[in-house]
UniProtKB/TrEMBL annotation:
Protein's recorded name: ABC-2 type transport system ATP-binding protein
A GO MF label: ATP hydrolysis activity
Keyword annotations: ATP-binding, Nucleotide-binding, Transport
Domain of life: Bacteria
Signal sequence range: none
ABC transporter domain location: 7-236
Native source species: Cocleimonas flava
Annotated InterPro entries: AAA+_ATPase, ABC_transporter-like_ATP-bd, P-loop_NTPase
Pfam families: ABC_tran
UniProt feature coiled coil, ranges: none
Record SUPFAM superfamilies: P-loop containing nucleoside triphosphate hydrolases
Gene3D superfamilies: P-loop containing nucleotide triphosphate hydrolases (3.40.50.300)
Assigned protein family: Belongs to the ABC transporter superfamily.
Length: 338
């Protein structure tokens, strides 16, 4: 099986004047992956996506799409990509059917196939209720669906969606996320967002961008694991000498909790993380009865904050999946939406 990446971007840089907005970003996406590009506003997500889609030229770096250089053969490379920019590129005075037929023509879909292609895209994006209404009269959620339909119309290998749920209400957000998850069955997807639960809900892998740089790129399980190892909770059946815990290799701080329980924080440097075996050894050497040794469970938002060190506008608490909207109610709203 070929493991060649569908997109391989190497050492991407982008300057706006003297401002270095994207700094040495590397990014790959494999077949069948949904990758979340996560970062606060201004992190460089849109600039990165515009470069990946050939809408913005990199100041330096290389982008290979399906084995084709985007710089050398832009037309061929771009044919493998569907793109929904942050502002959906829809014409408000056209209907979804007219607009998508126009997009199909732009994508060089043969005239005889356009109707079938448009019908399929409308069907996949749930536009069957509004095919002949003016786009300008549709809700923002439906307009976003039209934007996504134009991105998948020509059956690209990779669909790139820039902040696809911004400005939508909670029910629309949930529906668009569901649609993106479905797209992941047939396309590789790169999704940019500043909403943490969005990547958790939709993506297999996350790449966190902060101040133009990648600060983390891995699967969620690896992300959780890498940080959990740096904090441990330990408890003893009797009072112990806290200073001895302090002296364990890799321990940056020790916080006394309650009932002889302590929180040990490791140094940020991974090579200096706390080795649980050292705690066992210390307990045995001092004849302390160790009753608990647990990695401290951090939420993904704490992990993100540790990586990005910002009290920025990344949204943590507005996950519509956690809203108490009964499914029947949501379905009713969905049905009656337009
Ligand atoms: N055309 C431009 N000229 C000058 N600066 C720009 C331009 N486009 C973006 N920037 C700056 O580059 C940085 C990265 O912007 P970008 O839009 O890529 O970030 P982002 O992560 O997508 O943020 P947002 O979520 O707000 O769109 C920001 O500081 C932005 O102000």
């Amino acid at each position: 099986m070929s493991t060649e990446a569908l997109i391989k971007a190497t050492a991407l840089n982008r300057y706006y004047g003297k401002y270095h907005a994207v700094k040495d970003v590397h990014l790959t996406i494999q077949k069948g992956e949904v990758l979340g590009l996560l970062g606060p506003n201004g992190a460089g997500k849109s600039s990165t996506m515009q470069m990946l889609t050939g809408n913005l030229s990199p100041s330096s770096g290389e982008i290979i799409i399906n084995g084709v250089s985007l710089i050398d053969e832009p037309e061929t490379a771009k044919s493998s990509i569907g793109y929904l920019p942050e502002q959906p590129p829809v014409y408000r005075d056209m209907t979804p059917r007219e607009y998508l037929a126009y997009c199909a023509a732009l994508h060089d879909v043969a005239k005889a196939q356009r109707k079938a292609v448009v019908d399929e895209a409308m069907d996949r994006c749930g536009l069957h209720a509004v095919p002949d209404q003016l786009i300008g009269n549709l809700s923002k959620g439906y307009q976003q669906r039209v934007g996504i339909a134009q991105a998948i119309l020509h059956k690209p290998d990779v669909v790139i969606l820039d902040e696809p749920t911004v400005g939508l209400d909670p029910i629309q957000i949930r529906q668009i996320r569901e649609l993106i998850r479905e797209l992941g069955n047939d396309h590789s997807v790169i999704l940019s967002t500043h909403i943490l639960p969005e990547v958790q809900a939709v993506c297999d892998r996350v790449q966190i961008i902060h101040q133009g740089q990648t600060v983390f790129a891995d699967s969620f399980s690896a992300m959780a694991h890498s940080e959990r190892a740096s904090e441990l909770i330990v408890s003893f059946s009797q009072s112990i000498d806290k200073n001895k815990l302090d002296s364990i290799d890799g321990v940056a701080s020790v916080e006394a909790l309650e009932n002889n329980q302590f929180l040990l924080k490791g140094a940020k440097n991974e090579s200096q993380q706390i080795n649980p075996a050292d705690i066992f050894k210390l307990a045995v050497a001092n004849n302390w009865e160790l009753t608990e040794l647990t990695p401290k469970t951090e939420t993904l938002e704490q992990i993100f904050m540790n990586l990005v060190h910002t009290d920025s506008d990344v949204h943590f608490g507005s996950d519509p999946d956690s809203y108490p909207v009964a499914k029947a109610e949501a379905d009713a709203v969905w049905t009656n939406y337009e």
